[in-house]
Design brief:
The protein is of the alpha+beta class. The protein is 30% helix and 30% strand. It has 2 helices and 4 strands; from the N terminus they run ααββββ. The two termini are 18 Å apart.
Length: 79
Amino acid sequence: MTKKYLKRLKKMPQDFQYLFIDTIDKIEKWNLSDLDITSLTWKKNWYRCRLGKFRIVFYKNDIDDYIIEEIGSRWDIYK
């Protein structure tokens, strides 16, 4: 996890915080079946999870762990 990701999570409304925490927990436990996940075409082993207008960007490292890199609105996430 990055500090940037934690900072953004704390600024979000509490309803969204619970939704993000639940989704991040699923990603970290590899329970990806009921999530809207797409691989990012410009980076190998990078993915995004869609939650309405918000996105979670994460990647799979060498030891097969998913690392959350960024969360935020779909307009800001890819900058």
